[in-house]
Design a protein that fits this description.
Layout (H helix, E strand, L loop, with lengths): L4 E6 L8 E7 L9 E2 L2 E3 L6 H13 L3 E7 L7 E2 L5 E9 L12 E8 L13 H12 L1
Parallel strand pairs: 1-7
Antiparallel strand pairs: 1-4, 2-3, 2-8, 5-7, 6-7
């Protein structure tokens, strides 16, 4: 079984979200330029939220204030590519932390209004996750 993945739906404000950070993949070639929520694999014996915080620090050079988990109907994990599963949390940039920036994993990290996410070319497996994030933000 492949290691689970964690991702952050980074918004401008957990209390009143209006924009989401969308990141376009640098690799692999078949996903290059497609958008995703940033994150990465959980290491062996690592807590999921700790993995999320580590991955975002490594990929985007920022720290998070983690909010609620965004779950699919009837479960905690989203099915994604390669037989993996992904846990997703709403988050915002922690006070005093630098602004997120695209690192080696991404071509760009773009703040997009929540109402304008649908036109982006999302990785197919991430699209229902993004739709669930939008629904959480609109509550």
């Amino acid at each position: 079984m492949p290691r689970p993945v964690v991702a952050a739906a980074i918004v401008d404000s957990l209390e009143h979200p209006t924009v989401l950070l969308a990141c376009s993949r640098a690799y692999p070639q078949e996903l290059r330029g497609q958008f995703e929520l940033p994150g990465g694999k959980i290491e062996e014996d690592e807590d999921a939220v700790a993995a999320l915080e580590r991955e975002i620090a490594e990929e985007l050079g920022t720290h998070l204030r983690v909010g609620e988990r965004v779950c699919p109907d009837g479960g905690m994990w989203w099915p994604i590519l390669g037989g993996r599963v992904m846990g997703v949390w709403l988050a915002e940039v922690a006070p005093g932390s630098p602004a997120p920036r695209a690192g080696a994993s991404h071509l760009e990290a773009r703040w997009v209004p929540i109402t304008q996410l649908a036109p982006l070319q999302w990785i197919v497996a991430d699209l229902p996750i993004v739709e669930a994030v939008v629904a959480c933000c609109e509550r």
